[in-house]
Amino acid sequence: MSSFASSGPAAVPTSIVADAAMSAYNFGPNHPMSPKRLDLTARLAKELGIFDLPNVAVLDSYVASDDELATVHSREYIAAVRRVGADPSLSEPERGLGTEDDPAFARMHEASARLGGASLLLSDALIAGTAIRGVNFGGGMHHASREKAGGFCIYNDAAMAVQRLLDSGVGKVAYIDIDAHHGDGTQNIFFNEPRVMTISLHESGLTLFPGTGFANEIGGPKAEGTAVNVSLPAGTGDAGWLRAFHSVVPALVEAFAPDVILSQHGCDSHREDPLAHLNTSVDAQREAALSISALADKVCGGRWIAVGGGGYNIVSVVPRVWSHLMAIVAGKPIQLRTAVPQPWREYVQENFGQVAPLLMGEDADTWWRSWEVGYNPSDALDRTVMATRKAVFPLYGLDPWFD
């Protein structure tokens, strides 16, 4: 692809941002989004040897500049974040700042902009050819929109990374969001941008925040068909979740033919997550990451950036899912029967008073039924998948029934 420098034989193919300073993104001790999940994830990845792989470069982040933030956020909004971060007694609820979801905290601007800087580093690595893939597990702040915070998200690092790619000359980017919550902020930022396809697989807005993300949201007048939403019924488990993913995502990404995939891997669809009502396993989320990896290899020369997102079971779920993600991005998947390293389990026991999982997987049954074997109109999952396929597939010359 002409917009990327040649990677060359000496280049490091995978970049991972693992910066302890990113834990400053902290809404307080009683908030569901605990920064401790980042520390636990980094510790587990290190114990598993992911950071020591010869093809992996581990990076520190930086605080993104106002000019960089302004590629996807308004100057007025950035100034508001600065004001509230400078004086946490202030609130600007009309901008989502100082609310129950997004409480004000000291230096909020700097902490949030550092998450953005991490995802920008990954885009820059792809552009320069020093990496083909990258992970920012501390990112994925997909509810932040151009003018407003929302859902624990202040600045939208994923959107910043996508825009950086576009501004560098990349032709098209596919954004795939498998968080339990609709990726509304990222969708809204690119709703009228034909060079970006946003695909969100999430629990229905009828039962979960932010109440959006239905099949009829397909993009603005200049970009119809580039917003794709699969609105899953509450209670959807591994088989239905993977069926929905495979019935929509690969065909549309292949038809769109992006130059880069950027995926958001919020793991709050897990059955033990306290904030959503889906029923997936660590194993299924690993399977989805493997599928995105294969899709990147097939359609865009392997170029893939992965970010974190939601996930509020910070001991049993988040560290395992994101360690699997990092290993997959690096091309060295960890088997599900791998033992969780004993030093990490001891750290969890000593610091959290919890018994950590013994294995990296859950022995879940991740079999899923292919769309090609039949569609059941009496099944709620199949109805929502069909609604998405009917809304978008014909715009790419695809048959909603069979492709």
TrEMBL record:
> Coiled-coil intervals in this record?
none
**Which SUPFAM superfamilies does this UniProt record tie to the protein?**
Arginase/deacetylase
* Matches recorded under PANTHER family: HISTONE DEACETYLASE HDAC1 (PTHR10625:SF10), HISTONE DEACETYLASE HDAC1-RELATED (PTHR10625)
UniProt cross-references to Pfam families, sorted A to Z? Hist_deacetyl (PF00850)
- Protein source organism: Arthrobacter cryoconiti
- The name this protein carries in UniProt is Acetoin utilization protein AcuC
InterPro entries, per the entry: AcuC, HDACs, His_deacetylse_dom, His_deacetylse_dom_sf, Ureohydrolase_dom_sf
- Protein family according to the UniProt entry: Belongs to the histone deacetylase family.
Q: Which keywords label this protein?
A: Acetoin catabolism
Pathway participation: Ketone degradation; acetoin degradation
Residue span(s) of domain Histone deacetylase:
31-327
